[in-house]
Amino acid sequence: MPSKSVYWFGDGRADGNAGMKDLLGGKGAGVAEMTNAGIPVPPGFTITTEVCTRFYENGRRFPKDAEPEQWAALARVEKSTGMGFGDPQNPLLVSVRSGAKFSMPGMMDTILNLGLNDQTVEGHARRANNPRFAWDCYRRLIQMYSNVVLDVEKEQFEKVLRAKKEARGSKADTDLTVEDLKGLVEAFKGAVKEHSGHEFPQDVKAQLRGARDAVFRSWNNERAIAYRRMYRIPDSIGTAVTVQSMVFGNTGPKSATGVGFTRDPATGERKFYGEFLTNAQGEDVVAGIRTPRPIAELENEMPAAYRQLKEITARLEKHYRDVQDFEFTIQDEKLYMLQTRSGKRTGHAAVKIAVDMVKEKLITPKEAVGRVEPAMIEQLLHPVFDPLRRREFPAVAKGLNASPGAAAGKAVFDAPTAVAWKDRGERVVLLRAETCPDDIKGMAAAKGVLTSTGGRTSHAAVVGRQMGRPSVVGCTAVVVDEEHRRATVDGKVIKEGDYVSIDGTTGEVMIGDVPTRDSDILEVMRRNLDPSKSETWQNFAALMKWADGLRRLKVRANADIPRDAEAAVALGAEGIGLCRTEHMFFAPDRLPIVQEMIMAGDEAGRRAALERLVGFQRDDFYGLFKTMAGRPVTIRTLDPPLHEFLPRREELMVEIAEMNARGQKGPELTRKETLLARVEQLHEFNPMLGLRGCRLGILYPEITEMQARAIFEAACRCAKEKKPVVPEVMIPLVGHVNELKHQAALVRRVADEVMKKEGVKVKYLVGTMIEVPRAALTAAEVAGEAEFFSFGTNDLTQMTFGYSRDDAGKFLPLYVSEKTKILPDDPFVTIDKAGVGQLVRMSVENGRSVRADLKCGICGEHGGEPETVIFCHDTGLNYVSCSPYRVPVARLAAAHAVLREDARRGEARKPATKKGKRMAGTRR
Amino acid sequence: MPSKSVYWFGDGRADGNAGMKDLLGGKGAGVAEMTNAGIPVPPGFTITTEVCTRFYENGRRFPKDAEPEQWAALARVEKSTGMGFGDPQNPLLVSVRSGAKFSMPGMMDTILNLGLNDQTVEGHARRANNPRFAWDCYRRLIQMYSNVVLDVEKEQFEKVLRAKKEARGSKADTDLTVEDLKGLVEAFKGAVKEHSGHEFPQDVKAQLRGARDAVFRSWNNERAIAYRRMYRIPDSIGTAVTVQSMVFGNTGPKSATGVGFTRDPATGERKFYGEFLTNAQGEDVVAGIRTPRPIAELENEMPAAYRQLKEITARLEKHYRDVQDFEFTIQDEKLYMLQTRSGKRTGHAAVKIAVDMVKEKLITPKEAVGRVEPAMIEQLLHPVFDPLRRREFPAVAKGLNASPGAAAGKAVFDAPTAVAWKDRGERVVLLRAETCPDDIKGMAAAKGVLTSTGGRTSHAAVVGRQMGRPSVVGCTAVVVDEEHRRATVDGKVIKEGDYVSIDGTTGEVMIGDVPTRDSDILEVMRRNLDPSKSETWQNFAALMKWADGLRRLKVRANADIPRDAEAAVALGAEGIGLCRTEHMFFAPDRLPIVQEMIMAGDEAGRRAALERLVGFQRDDFYGLFKTMAGRPVTIRTLDPPLHEFLPRREELMVEIAEMNARGQKGPELTRKETLLARVEQLHEFNPMLGLRGCRLGILYPEITEMQARAIFEAACRCAKEKKPVVPEVMIPLVGHVNELKHQAALVRRVADEVMKKEGVKVKYLVGTMIEVPRAALTAAEVAGEAEFFSFGTNDLTQMTFGYSRDDAGKFLPLYVSEKTKILPDDPFVTIDKAGVGQLVRMSVENGRSVRADLKCGICGEHGGEPETVIFCHDTGLNYVSCSPYRVPVARLAAAHAVLREDARRGEARKPATKKGKRMAGTRR
């Protein structure tokens, strides 16, 4: 037995309510709720999403058994309005609209004015006493219906319309007379016949059936599928169809139509916000043909309707306890509400609204946390383009939006120039084909980074996010010619010193200096302003505090230097989850010593060089420990392959070949040849899978020894100074428990030696990164040795998928594209739950079966991605660690994980169907 | 309650038997069994391996409760021999020997002549009427005891002995008089005191305790641990200690001692085989100071003892139903058997002995299969060095024994020279720093391959095994200078044309032309000889047939061309498990077309080139199908990254730089620049994890299309010619089921098209390689699409461990070394059961939960490694696939898997202790 297919609303009563979005879609549930609350809504009915499912199961045909229900509901609309569908004297006109559970604005089809034909148009004209209006409605119906249902291109009608206007010498549609419109209708009908082979149906029931089925079909049009993919809306939920009696904002000067928000969706300010047009239909407001007027002006034109609108929308906001985005129509001074829904808003607005509503006692702090999408909070942290000025600069290219935020400055093409220009007070944007560790200082000096190659996890992207530098990467349209210090894009040349602006939030590239400004939050942090003076900071802090009260997952930051650690602490980090010691090796005062160590032919030579590095490292760690003031600091021993610290092999080969070809000789050639010989020794076909991580520390134990000494000397110094300190030494790239045993024994021995010498005791942990699949598969063994696991999901993803993240740009875009749909998401952005996630789950379970108190965290790029944070919470991890600027996102996402958990529990307790709470308000 | 610690043997009765090796060790069980069979064995007792375990649990101290049992047993030896331990008149002398379950020759300690001291030596002398003999025994005891128990270096005694001999002007030990020996004893006692700080114990009970404990301790000496590691003997099983009354082969001319085999251990020939010395102790035979005489000569000297020895050893062979390796002593014409055990033998001997014993009805065919270690069978296939001539050529270096067999020829340093010299009738050995696909023809032309870099799974090693070419790789001591066509090793220069010999079985490299010959099996196969004329072939075939009768696991071969397929079939392959289509792309008539395809800028250009390749591929597949005559043929679609088909990037860069530096211009420069531009586009940081496998087929579907067309056109041609054909199309590098869906749909579409066009139907399968961890983790999903799984354990190992097999040579040798003991085995040789094996198990289980008849096989390098084959059997795979020359190994290993399974079942059914079967023979 099929369940009820059609839900009525009208006459102050509705079958549905706001809780039934699954079945009635957002729109259907919204009008039902409003109807029940006594708000004036034109009557109608909603055909459920279940019917949509059956429509597809039935080979894209409307289920026969639902037809009678539909016509019965239509009869009830006729009764309620006193009009008849197809009645030549008093014709009922209806709209047919799509509406899924989640709003998908503009993605599916809508048809208005159904019920008009050659007969009813006359009755419509008589009734409105406005033939021009009626024939305009009719020609719009033919246009819309034939496009949506019969697949006639819009352009065909535009052509006819243009011809008609040219013939009349008129410019605007409104110049057309009734006779013109009648002629247009005939011409349109001819175009329909010509291009579809079908007549425009005069049978109004056929119109309704055709429109209804077309809306169901539009669920699977290309743009709807793409939208669902982007917003992770399941394909299976389907759309509802709402059939509603038409009201008209275009019957004359005492009619109007408009849209509005109960608060400002850009700033969150509590003010009545919207636009309207008199004598217009809804599409006119959206289409931008006429300029809508601010909603405040409606008060002068139609004071009663305006007051009623304000009163109703205020009630709606209170009822839904959220900002409402509403549509209304005034027909002959009578107000109808057509739609209401939660309004989309910017990150800034979301935070302000949520905090304000708590102050207004409209929502609880817990609900406020749920109102702000974790990813949105990041918008509060990144520099922003001045939105008004941005319009002056068209985008010339679009790359991957790797690190959000706005940046503008003079184009530079290498790191030294970036540093030099910045030092002389210039703002610069660094343009490179790709970046490498040598470019780090340049990236730090630049306002933003633009690369023509590389993906979202390329060096430029990772470091950009780490530093909070807006970055656009993989922007292939920009051809960077580093040698000649210029780039070309779209036929234009960007020379060194030309202004370039990039929007890391959208991936757009503009030529010119688009004005930007620091976000309020950053201003407070960076300029040490008084936070109590910044409302944004106050709201941000309040929301974060509520989130912290909810979440159980701890949030740490990945930071290598005290400055990053300070930012992380300011943004709420509870520890450092990953300090990459090799970043300390790239500093200009250390790199030559590191290179000396690598070039040394034996252990003694290496030890001599390491002896000169240990002081640097000790001071680095001391600085970090001091900044973190007793919060745990996880330090990873040396990880990258050694050749990363030496010049590039190909460059040396070419330089030597050139010198030889020119017959050049001398010590410089010898030096380069010696260097190349070592680089060749270290060369690897797949460095990602080569001599790095703990393999280095096992081959050259003296390196791990030096690092352990630096860590424990720094920790002992803190201890002597009575500064609390909690070092956690992390061994990377472990695949077999014996590797960890080897390195852990070494670290513990050095720790003992240093503590004995210094005469203080420091508590510390030794653990491992789980980033090699084999470590995850043998987690029970590894946990026997490890006091903590930290999931290095970057490498774990690389090895589990067999994707090199440096090379995956060649096929990953195709894989996540609509064309192949091989992968639902880029696995370097959102953790792959089925594969990588399964390894994480296995590791946690098996690890804790051996060591119940095993501390588990994640320190890969995924650590700041909301869906991954929620996965980490659900998997029972203790913490996530992410770049400092993503810490607030992770804190909020961790709170959302608790909210989702609560919702799941509530769902489990709830009976199968549930009556929605009735809206407050008097019934009329 | 500790169980019985001491097991008696003597007077024709023993507590133990041959079935108790676990508890009594091989030696203890052997003497017990012999004693029970009435064979003359000097009486004694065995302290069990359980006591050894308790010894270690007890902090390396002998368990107190076992002492009384031991002394009681000693008393019984005194009674049986009529002598007294420590009795000055008639002293009992005993030996103390180690003996674990598995023979570990020479690894642990043994002490003879215990019971001698300053008093008993006189009684011993009187009783033997031979003071010289008695004092020689005593000085040997002091030497041996002090070395083993008190850690005095052997050299200390040698020094004293040398001084004594010099003082006497004598050369041999036998020149020393009784007085000399008495002086030596005193000097030895002084040396003991000086170097150990202890006196040599005069208390004979202390001697026995000291010797016994030292034997237990020797279980964990370095060489014993290393030996166990090499032969995979568990550390936990411990050694037994056998205390046995001494008999002496050195009491005079009517005494003797010797060792022997019941059949020739080198050839398997059935003849009494051994050596003896009169008037000598066992160690003299082994030490090589005197030259032992052939055992046949014993018949003349002591005919009764000889007859008895022949009769007893024949009986032993019959009883143990295996070749016996025995030790005996004749004291004053009375024969004593000291030891018997199964004799170690070569592969050739193992096969002959097993088959002969079946003919002799001594063992069943099933037992015969169990008698030949799978790896040994390979010795029958590879060329062999003439063992006598080999001694003339000392090894100058040792590399990794990558592909077994012997090869000798003139050194060449590039592939074209190898081909040219071979064509003019020379034998050549190819020396390269490393090999690449360009070298394949050269490798095929060479007798053997020697590289200075690369591991056991390097290109040279893999291809060497595939081709059955003896190969030594990673031989760093040989510095290959390809440019100047020479190599240096150990200060010597090998020029082009100099003779070099390599032993792929041992990894040794010799300068010079060591004579080799084809094995009999290969001679039969390669020269199409009449197999019935070759006894080796007959024996080999018989054994293989019995193995085939036992095994359930199928064996296929990896083969790309008909010649390899023919060899595979001749060696028993039941199908092709992996045909690598890219190998067909490297042929000189195709490579230019492949390069054209890669250089094409668009799909149309690629299709044009592919159109010219399809005919080649179709003919290739047709040839394979025909050769395999209805056996399944698994064809993998294109796998390697495209840049492997183009010149090397660095070479192009250097060439262009040189041309530019010299100011050269012209079309050649332009051509190289164009080539480099494409090579740069294709360049990858980690090609192993880059654009290859199905990723290529998804990006360029036209490649998969062409290959599918070639496969099905060839298959249809076979079908039309009524030749049976079973193609299995395998999609490589799948990580997500959607990749397989994409490629499988394409293959099936092309198959339909071709079959429709050709008008015939061919049954085929589409499946995937499981080589990416994610595919294994999501095997249930993948099995929804795949009709078979083939485990590509090379790549699966690379990704699961995060080891690039091209680069792992930098650390893997350290990892498997004694120094770090990180890994028990090279995971590219023996499958890693805990990690990679876990993924294989998961895949099979989860895959079959979705598709019960899912065919599962393995096609990685591991497919021919016996332990892996057994793992595959245990995991329920349907087949293994390996290089043609390893097919017999795999067949035998698959049979062994069944034997092990039966043994486990038998073990499970067996009661906790079991009485061994009594040996046939009359009791005396």
Descriptive account of the structure:
The structure is a homodimer of 924-residue chains. By secondary structure, chain A is α/β, with parallel strands linked by helices. In chain A, the strands form six sheets. Chain A has an eight-stranded mixed β-sheet. An eight-stranded parallel β-barrel of chain A has the order 25-26-27-28-29-30-31-32, surrounded by seven helices. In chain A, α18 links the parallel β17 and β18. The longest helix of chain A has 26 residues, at 603-628. The first copy, chain A, is elongated. The two termini of chain A are 36 Å apart. At the A-B interface, α25, α27, α29, α30 and α32 of A face α26, α28, α30, α31 and α33 of B.
Write the layout of secondary structure elements.
2 copies of one chain form a homodimer.
Chain A: E1 6-10, E2 13-14, H1 21-36, E3 44-47, H2 49-57, H3 67-81, E4 94-100, E5 110-114, H4 120-128, H5 131-148, H6 154-168, H7 178-196, H8 204-218, H9 222-230, E6 239-245, E7 256-261, E8 273-278, H10 282-287, E9 293-294, H11 298-301, H12 303-320, E10 324-331, E11 334-342, H13 347-359, H14 365-371, E12 384-385, H15 387-390, E13 395-398, E14 400-403, E15 406-412, H16 415-423, E16 428-432, H17 440-445, E17 448-451, H18 459-467, E18 471-473, E19 479-481, E20 486-489, E21 492-495, E22 499-503, E23 508-511, E24 516-517, H19 520-526, H20 535-550, E25 554-558, H21 562-570, E26 576-580, H22 581-585, H23 591-599, H24 603-628, E27 632-636, H25 649-661, H26 667-682, H27 694-699, H28 701-720, E28 726-731, H29 737-758, E29 765-770, H30 773-777, H31 779-783, E30 788-791, H32 793-801, H33 812-815, H34 833-850, E31 855-858, H35 866-874, E32 879-882, H36 887-909
Parallel strand pairs in A: 15-16, 16-17, 17-18, 25-26, 25-32, 26-27, 27-28, 28-29, 29-30, 30-31, 31-32
Antiparallel strand pairs in A: 1-2, 1-3, 3-6, 4-5, 4-6, 7-8, 7-10, 8-9, 10-11, 12-24, 13-23, 14-18, 15-22, 19-20, 20-21, 22-23
Helix pairs in contact in A: 4-5, 5-7, 6-7, 13-14, 13-20, 14-20, 20-36, 21-24, 23-24, 24-28, 25-26, 28-29, 35-36
